[in-house]
Amino acid sequence: MRFKYRIKEVWRFLLLAFYPKITLFGCLVLSIVVSVLFGIIASRIPQESFTYNISFTFATGIISSCLFTFFVELFNNFKHNKLALYELHEYYSIVLRFENYKLIGMQQTSFQRAGKKTHEGFGSLCDKDEMLEEDKPKDIVQITWEQLPEMIPVFKRTLNDKMEFLSDVEIDELRKILIYYEWITACVSDCILTSSLTYDSLNHPDEDCLKSVYPSNVIKNIPEWIKRDLSRKESLKACDRYVEAILSDSSLLSQVMKNYEISNNSLDSLQEKLIRQEEGEYSCSEDDDYDDRDFYEPENEETFKLRNEEIYNQLEYRSEVSGIISDCCQNISDRIDSIEKCIQKKPYYGIVLEKLALTQM
Predict the structure, then answer these.
(1) Between helices 349-360 and 2-15, what is the axis angle to 10°?
(2) What angle is formed at CA 204 by the lines to CA 201 and CA 206, rounded to 5 degrees?
(3) SS3 (DSSP) at 11
(4) What is the mean pLDDT of residues 145-160?
(5) Rounded distance between C-alpha atoms, residue 173 and residue 187, angstroms
Protein backbone atom coordinates (compact mmCIF):
# COMPACT_ATOMS: atom_id res chain seq x y z
CA MET A 1 0.00 0.00 0.00
CA ARG A 2 2.82 2.37 0.89
CA PHE A 3 4.69 1.48 -2.31
CA LYS A 4 1.55 2.18 -4.34
CA TYR A 5 1.14 5.57 -2.67
CA ARG A 6 4.77 6.45 -3.44
CA ILE A 7 4.29 5.57 -7.11
CA LYS A 8 1.17 7.72 -7.20
CA GLU A 9 3.00 10.64 -5.62
CA VAL A 10 5.93 10.37 -8.04
CA TRP A 11 3.53 10.18 -10.98
CA ARG A 12 1.77 13.36 -9.84
CA PHE A 13 5.05 15.23 -9.66
CA LEU A 14 6.03 13.94 -13.12
CA LEU A 15 2.77 15.32 -14.47
CA LEU A 16 3.94 18.78 -13.42
CA ALA A 17 6.36 18.68 -16.35
CA PHE A 18 3.53 18.25 -18.86
CA TYR A 19 1.52 21.34 -17.88
CA PRO A 20 0.79 23.48 -19.85
CA LYS A 21 0.72 21.32 -22.94
CA ILE A 22 0.65 23.96 -25.69
CA THR A 23 4.41 24.30 -26.26
CA LEU A 24 5.01 20.57 -25.87
CA PHE A 25 2.22 19.74 -28.30
CA GLY A 26 3.57 22.28 -30.81
CA CYS A 27 7.07 20.80 -30.67
CA LEU A 28 5.79 17.27 -31.24
CA VAL A 29 3.50 18.27 -34.10
CA LEU A 30 6.27 20.25 -35.80
CA SER A 31 8.70 17.33 -35.45
CA ILE A 32 6.20 14.89 -36.94
CA VAL A 33 5.28 17.22 -39.84
CA VAL A 34 8.95 17.91 -40.67
CA SER A 35 9.84 14.20 -40.45
CA VAL A 36 7.01 13.20 -42.77
CA LEU A 37 7.65 16.05 -45.20
CA PHE A 38 11.37 15.51 -45.59
CA GLY A 39 10.85 11.72 -45.52
CA ILE A 40 8.63 12.02 -48.58
CA ILE A 41 11.16 14.30 -50.28
CA ALA A 42 14.08 11.98 -49.49
CA SER A 43 12.22 8.94 -50.82
CA ARG A 44 11.70 10.58 -54.21
CA ILE A 45 15.24 11.75 -54.93
CA PRO A 46 18.57 9.90 -55.24
CA GLN A 47 20.69 9.62 -52.12
CA GLU A 48 23.78 10.89 -53.95
CA SER A 49 22.15 14.17 -54.95
CA PHE A 50 22.82 17.53 -53.32
CA THR A 51 19.09 18.07 -52.66
CA TYR A 52 18.94 14.87 -50.63
CA ASN A 53 21.82 16.01 -48.41
CA ILE A 54 20.18 19.42 -47.86
CA SER A 55 16.82 17.81 -47.05
CA PHE A 56 18.41 15.33 -44.66
CA THR A 57 20.36 18.14 -42.92
CA PHE A 58 17.25 20.28 -42.52
CA ALA A 59 15.18 17.37 -41.23
CA THR A 60 17.71 16.25 -38.63
CA GLY A 61 18.38 19.85 -37.52
CA ILE A 62 14.73 20.80 -37.10
CA ILE A 63 13.80 17.52 -35.41
CA SER A 64 16.72 17.72 -32.98
CA SER A 65 15.86 21.36 -32.20
CA CYS A 66 12.24 20.47 -31.54
CA LEU A 67 13.21 17.56 -29.31
CA PHE A 68 15.66 19.74 -27.43
CA THR A 69 13.00 22.43 -26.94
CA PHE A 70 10.58 19.72 -25.83
CA PHE A 71 12.86 18.51 -23.04
CA VAL A 72 13.79 22.06 -22.02
CA GLU A 73 10.08 22.88 -21.73
CA LEU A 74 9.56 19.74 -19.65
CA PHE A 75 12.22 20.91 -17.22
CA ASN A 76 10.92 24.50 -17.11
CA ASN A 77 7.33 23.35 -16.60
CA PHE A 78 8.33 21.05 -13.77
CA LYS A 79 10.36 23.77 -12.07
CA HIS A 80 7.65 26.42 -12.49
CA ASN A 81 4.74 24.19 -11.44
CA LYS A 82 6.59 22.82 -8.43
CA LEU A 83 7.31 26.37 -7.28
CA ALA A 84 3.69 27.37 -7.95
CA LEU A 85 2.52 24.42 -5.87
CA TYR A 86 4.25 25.89 -2.82
CA GLU A 87 3.75 29.58 -3.57
CA LEU A 88 -0.01 29.26 -4.21
CA HIS A 89 -0.74 26.76 -1.46
CA GLU A 90 -2.46 29.36 0.75
CA TYR A 91 -4.50 30.66 -2.18
CA TYR A 92 -5.66 27.24 -3.35
CA SER A 93 -6.31 26.16 0.21
CA ILE A 94 -8.63 29.11 0.82
CA VAL A 95 -10.54 28.35 -2.39
CA LEU A 96 -10.96 24.67 -1.56
CA ARG A 97 -11.75 25.46 2.07
CA PHE A 98 -14.52 27.78 0.90
CA GLU A 99 -16.09 24.83 -0.92
CA ASN A 100 -16.01 22.84 2.32
CA TYR A 101 -17.61 25.73 4.22
CA LYS A 102 -20.36 25.83 1.60
CA LEU A 103 -21.15 22.16 2.08
CA ILE A 104 -21.14 22.51 5.86
CA GLY A 105 -23.09 25.78 5.94
CA MET A 106 -25.73 24.52 3.52
CA GLN A 107 -25.79 21.21 5.45
CA GLN A 108 -24.98 19.11 2.40
CA THR A 109 -22.22 16.93 3.84
CA SER A 110 -22.83 13.18 4.03
CA PHE A 111 -22.91 13.33 7.84
CA GLN A 112 -25.48 16.15 7.87
CA ARG A 113 -27.65 14.46 5.23
CA ALA A 114 -27.61 11.27 7.28
CA GLY A 115 -28.69 13.26 10.33
CA LYS A 116 -31.58 14.80 8.39
CA LYS A 117 -32.78 11.38 7.27
CA THR A 118 -32.61 10.14 10.85
CA HIS A 119 -34.75 13.03 12.06
CA GLU A 120 -37.19 12.54 9.21
CA GLY A 121 -37.46 8.84 9.96
CA PHE A 122 -37.89 9.06 13.73
CA GLY A 123 -39.40 12.52 13.95
CA SER A 124 -37.53 15.66 14.84
CA LEU A 125 -37.51 16.73 18.47
CA CYS A 126 -37.82 20.35 17.53
CA ASP A 127 -39.56 22.22 14.78
CA LYS A 128 -37.52 23.97 12.09
CA ASP A 129 -38.70 27.37 13.33
CA GLU A 130 -37.56 26.48 16.85
CA MET A 131 -34.01 25.62 15.74
CA LEU A 132 -31.17 27.84 16.88
CA GLU A 133 -30.10 30.39 14.30
CA GLU A 134 -26.60 28.90 14.00
CA ASP A 135 -28.08 25.43 13.40
CA LYS A 136 -30.23 26.47 10.44
CA PRO A 137 -28.96 25.90 6.89
CA LYS A 138 -27.38 28.97 5.31
CA ASP A 139 -27.57 30.11 1.72
CA ILE A 140 -24.58 30.84 -0.47
CA VAL A 141 -24.79 34.61 0.10
CA GLN A 142 -24.62 34.23 3.88
CA ILE A 143 -21.69 31.81 3.66
CA THR A 144 -19.75 34.08 1.30
CA TRP A 145 -20.41 37.09 3.52
CA GLU A 146 -19.04 35.28 6.56
CA GLN A 147 -15.88 34.16 4.76
CA LEU A 148 -14.97 37.49 3.13
CA PRO A 149 -12.65 38.73 5.93
CA GLU A 150 -10.61 35.53 5.60
CA MET A 151 -10.59 35.20 1.81
CA ILE A 152 -10.07 38.74 0.53
CA PRO A 153 -6.61 39.37 2.10
CA VAL A 154 -5.35 36.11 0.57
CA PHE A 155 -6.76 37.03 -2.85
CA LYS A 156 -5.14 40.48 -2.68
CA ARG A 157 -1.72 39.09 -1.74
CA THR A 158 -1.92 36.45 -4.44
CA LEU A 159 -2.90 38.89 -7.18
CA ASN A 160 -0.30 41.48 -6.15
CA ASP A 161 2.67 39.24 -5.33
CA LYS A 162 2.19 35.95 -7.20
CA MET A 163 0.53 36.87 -10.46
CA GLU A 164 3.16 35.04 -12.53
CA PHE A 165 1.91 31.71 -11.20
CA LEU A 166 -1.74 32.38 -12.09
CA SER A 167 -3.55 31.61 -15.31
CA ASP A 168 -5.33 34.31 -17.29
CA VAL A 169 -8.70 33.03 -16.09
CA GLU A 170 -7.63 33.21 -12.44
CA ILE A 171 -6.26 36.74 -12.84
CA ASP A 172 -9.47 37.90 -14.48
CA GLU A 173 -11.70 36.28 -11.86
CA LEU A 174 -9.63 37.61 -8.95
CA ARG A 175 -9.84 41.14 -10.34
CA LYS A 176 -13.61 40.83 -10.60
CA ILE A 177 -13.78 39.57 -7.01
CA LEU A 178 -11.82 42.58 -5.77
CA ILE A 179 -14.07 44.94 -7.74
CA TYR A 180 -17.16 43.43 -6.13
CA TYR A 181 -15.44 43.68 -2.76
CA GLU A 182 -14.80 47.38 -3.35
CA TRP A 183 -18.55 47.84 -3.80
CA ILE A 184 -19.14 45.96 -0.56
CA THR A 185 -16.53 48.11 1.18
CA ALA A 186 -18.25 51.28 -0.03
CA CYS A 187 -21.64 50.10 1.26
CA VAL A 188 -20.25 48.95 4.61
CA SER A 189 -18.32 52.21 4.98
CA ASP A 190 -21.53 54.19 4.56
CA CYS A 191 -23.15 52.07 7.25
CA ILE A 192 -20.22 52.31 9.65
CA LEU A 193 -19.40 55.98 9.14
CA THR A 194 -22.62 57.39 10.51
CA SER A 195 -23.48 61.03 10.13
CA SER A 196 -22.05 61.89 13.56
CA LEU A 197 -18.68 60.29 12.87
CA THR A 198 -18.33 61.78 9.40
CA TYR A 199 -19.65 65.18 10.41
CA ASP A 200 -17.31 65.51 13.38
CA SER A 201 -14.32 64.34 11.33
CA LEU A 202 -14.98 67.03 8.72
CA ASN A 203 -16.20 69.89 10.89
CA HIS A 204 -14.64 69.22 14.30
CA PRO A 205 -11.32 67.48 13.59
CA ASP A 206 -8.99 66.74 16.46
CA GLU A 207 -5.99 69.02 16.06
CA ASP A 208 -4.08 67.22 18.81
CA CYS A 209 -3.25 64.46 16.33
CA LEU A 210 -0.85 66.86 14.61
CA LYS A 211 1.37 66.87 17.69
CA SER A 212 2.61 63.40 16.82
CA VAL A 213 3.57 64.57 13.31
CA TYR A 214 4.90 68.12 13.75
CA PRO A 215 7.02 69.68 16.50
CA SER A 216 5.27 72.16 18.78
CA ASN A 217 7.18 75.15 17.40
CA VAL A 218 6.05 74.24 13.87
CA ILE A 219 2.42 73.76 14.91
CA LYS A 220 2.50 77.14 16.65
CA ASN A 221 3.40 78.88 13.39
CA ILE A 222 1.04 76.97 11.09
CA PRO A 223 -1.94 79.11 10.02
CA GLU A 224 -5.24 78.02 11.53
CA TRP A 225 -6.91 77.17 8.21
CA ILE A 226 -3.97 74.92 7.21
CA LYS A 227 -3.92 73.32 10.65
CA ARG A 228 -7.64 72.61 10.38
CA ASP A 229 -7.27 71.13 6.90
CA LEU A 230 -4.39 68.86 7.98
CA SER A 231 -6.25 67.64 11.05
CA ARG A 232 -9.35 66.99 8.93
CA LYS A 233 -7.31 64.77 6.60
CA GLU A 234 -5.84 62.89 9.55
CA SER A 235 -9.32 62.36 10.98
CA LEU A 236 -10.56 60.95 7.67
CA LYS A 237 -7.54 58.60 7.53
CA ALA A 238 -8.44 57.41 11.03
CA CYS A 239 -12.00 56.74 9.83
CA ASP A 240 -10.60 54.62 6.99
CA ARG A 241 -8.47 52.63 9.45
CA TYR A 242 -11.54 52.17 11.63
CA VAL A 243 -13.53 50.76 8.70
CA GLU A 244 -10.64 48.53 7.62
CA ALA A 245 -10.33 47.08 11.13
CA ILE A 246 -14.02 46.15 11.15
CA LEU A 247 -13.92 44.67 7.64
CA SER A 248 -10.97 42.45 8.57
CA ASP A 249 -12.73 40.93 11.59
CA SER A 250 -15.75 38.71 10.96
CA SER A 251 -17.13 39.05 14.50
CA LEU A 252 -16.93 42.87 14.47
CA LEU A 253 -18.42 42.98 10.99
CA SER A 254 -21.36 40.75 11.95
CA GLN A 255 -22.12 42.93 14.98
CA VAL A 256 -21.93 46.21 13.08
CA MET A 257 -24.13 44.86 10.26
CA LYS A 258 -26.55 42.88 12.44
CA ASN A 259 -29.51 45.05 11.37
CA TYR A 260 -28.88 44.23 7.70
CA GLU A 261 -30.18 40.97 6.25
CA ILE A 262 -27.49 39.84 3.81
CA SER A 263 -28.96 36.72 2.24
CA ASN A 264 -30.73 35.38 -0.83
CA ASN A 265 -33.96 36.93 0.45
CA SER A 266 -32.48 40.44 0.22
CA LEU A 267 -31.09 39.65 -3.23
CA ASP A 268 -34.50 38.45 -4.42
CA SER A 269 -36.17 41.57 -3.01
CA LEU A 270 -33.69 43.83 -4.81
CA GLN A 271 -34.18 41.99 -8.11
CA GLU A 272 -37.97 42.19 -7.80
CA LYS A 273 -37.72 45.91 -7.13
CA LEU A 274 -35.50 46.42 -10.19
CA ILE A 275 -37.92 44.43 -12.34
CA ARG A 276 -40.86 46.55 -11.15
CA GLN A 277 -38.89 49.70 -11.92
CA GLU A 278 -38.11 48.48 -15.45
CA GLU A 279 -41.76 47.59 -16.02
CA GLY A 280 -42.92 50.92 -14.61
CA GLU A 281 -44.87 49.28 -11.82
CA TYR A 282 -42.74 50.61 -8.98
CA SER A 283 -44.09 53.72 -7.36
CA CYS A 284 -42.55 55.79 -4.62
CA SER A 285 -43.83 55.15 -1.15
CA GLU A 286 -45.14 57.85 1.12
CA ASP A 287 -41.71 58.09 2.73
CA ASP A 288 -40.22 58.91 -0.67
CA ASP A 289 -42.75 61.64 -1.49
CA TYR A 290 -40.46 64.63 -1.44
CA ASP A 291 -43.29 67.09 -2.11
CA ASP A 292 -44.83 66.36 1.30
CA ARG A 293 -41.58 66.53 3.22
CA ASP A 294 -40.76 69.43 5.47
CA PHE A 295 -37.26 70.50 4.51
CA TYR A 296 -36.66 72.91 7.32
CA GLU A 297 -33.19 74.03 8.29
CA PRO A 298 -31.98 72.17 11.43
CA GLU A 299 -31.77 74.33 14.51
CA ASN A 300 -28.43 72.91 15.66
CA GLU A 301 -25.86 70.26 14.92
CA GLU A 302 -27.47 67.64 17.15
CA THR A 303 -30.75 67.94 15.27
CA PHE A 304 -28.88 67.66 11.98
CA LYS A 305 -27.06 64.51 13.13
CA LEU A 306 -30.23 62.90 14.43
CA ARG A 307 -32.10 63.52 11.19
CA ASN A 308 -29.30 62.02 9.13
CA GLU A 309 -29.06 58.99 11.42
CA GLU A 310 -32.79 58.43 10.90
CA ILE A 311 -32.15 58.20 7.16
CA TYR A 312 -29.45 55.55 7.71
CA ASN A 313 -31.78 53.59 9.99
CA GLN A 314 -34.75 53.56 7.61
CA LEU A 315 -35.92 50.11 6.56
CA GLU A 316 -35.86 51.08 2.88
CA TYR A 317 -32.21 52.13 3.12
CA ARG A 318 -31.17 48.97 4.96
CA SER A 319 -33.07 46.83 2.47
CA GLU A 320 -31.34 48.44 -0.50
CA VAL A 321 -27.87 48.15 1.07
CA SER A 322 -28.53 44.53 2.02
CA GLY A 323 -29.58 43.77 -1.55
CA ILE A 324 -26.46 45.36 -3.07
CA ILE A 325 -24.11 43.53 -0.69
CA SER A 326 -25.99 40.26 -1.26
CA ASP A 327 -25.66 40.67 -5.03
CA CYS A 328 -21.90 41.26 -4.71
CA CYS A 329 -21.54 38.20 -2.46
CA GLN A 330 -23.40 36.07 -5.01
CA ASN A 331 -21.11 37.29 -7.79
CA ILE A 332 -18.01 36.63 -5.67
CA SER A 333 -19.22 33.08 -5.03
CA ASP A 334 -19.69 32.54 -8.78
CA ARG A 335 -16.18 33.82 -9.47
CA ILE A 336 -14.70 31.49 -6.85
CA ASP A 337 -16.52 28.56 -8.47
CA SER A 338 -14.90 29.51 -11.77
CA ILE A 339 -11.47 29.63 -10.08
CA GLU A 340 -12.07 26.20 -8.56
CA LYS A 341 -12.87 24.73 -11.99
CA CYS A 342 -9.61 26.19 -13.25
CA ILE A 343 -7.69 24.67 -10.34
CA GLN A 344 -9.16 21.24 -11.01
CA LYS A 345 -7.50 21.23 -14.45
CA LYS A 346 -4.04 21.59 -12.95
CA PRO A 347 -1.97 18.47 -12.28
CA TYR A 348 -1.20 19.31 -8.64
CA TYR A 349 -4.88 19.62 -7.67
CA GLY A 350 -4.74 16.27 -5.89
CA ILE A 351 -1.55 17.25 -4.04
CA VAL A 352 -3.20 20.43 -2.74
CA LEU A 353 -6.23 18.43 -1.61
CA GLU A 354 -4.08 15.96 0.33
CA LYS A 355 -2.04 18.71 1.99
CA LEU A 356 -5.21 20.57 2.91
CA ALA A 357 -6.69 17.40 4.42
CA LEU A 358 -3.53 16.84 6.48
CA THR A 359 -3.58 20.42 7.84
CA GLN A 360 -7.23 20.04 8.91
CA MET A 361 -6.68 16.76 10.78
Answers:
(1) 130
(2) 80
(3) helix
(4) 92
(5) 21
